[in-house]
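Can anyone check this?
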Amino acid sequence: MKHVFVVNPAAGNGMAVKELLPRIHQALEGFEDDYEIHRTLNAQETALYCRQKCSFEGRVRVYAVGGDGTVNNVLQGIAGFKNAELAIFPSGSGDDFVRNFPSPKPFLDIPAMIRASTQKVDVIKYNDMYSINMCNIGTDSAIVEKVAERKSDRLKGSLVYAVSALEVLATKPIYEMAYSFDDGEEKQGLFFLSAVGNGRFCGGGFKSCPKASLKDGLMDVCMVSQVKGPAIVKELLRYRKGTHLKHESTRRYIEYRQCRKFYLKALTPATIALDGEVMPFEEGTFEIIPKFINLVVPEGFVVS
């Protein structure tokens, strides 16, 4: 098996290079299998590099060393290759995908991840791209965009998301959307945000899609309508904790569906964060693809 370590030098304010890269070199001393270590340049280069590596015969285990955006960049490259395996070394500012597991620490055990086995997980196909965790449209995406602008700040982890969220919320964002689910009936409304989840977490720990599973063959869609006045603080705290479906006062703002296909069109300007990768959004079809990726999972963990 070929091992390919894809390192994002910008991830986590340089954490991937400063901390993980030396540990990777140390772990690979005397390693007999074929391996490569590659520093990424940008999203497009990362996907192309991974695609080229997976084009050869034989198993290829690709290690995404970075944050959720790095994982997504690697995913675009390995998608469709049955010989490819995805391993994750979380070293970003949010690292939301690994929050779907009991702890992120075993993912950072490099020798153990090299030996670990794989389990199949679903992914979301968005137009001609892929998402392994969550697609966020509207306010969530605007917050991720603001976080990216703060890369030079000393703020880290959840704190940078909290500060960025306050800054975005001050603008009182609202988005007009047209949408439809599996049944094809098109609806329209004003929304604060829309989350399309394969995983449960986004934005540095917001449990946006609390019912989501990585292997149930369904995606979870959570659409939050306009919340006015002081109530927005209380509702946002519930949304972060993942309790927003348990409170009757909160559910009136929410449309939550589990489905296999979902269509969304922005009638006002919006962006989408695809596993943390922000890009313009006009319209898109989201479709779940069951058991699409061979995910390297730490020993003792079970995909749920």
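Reply from J.R.: I decoded it. The chain has a mean pLDDT of 92.
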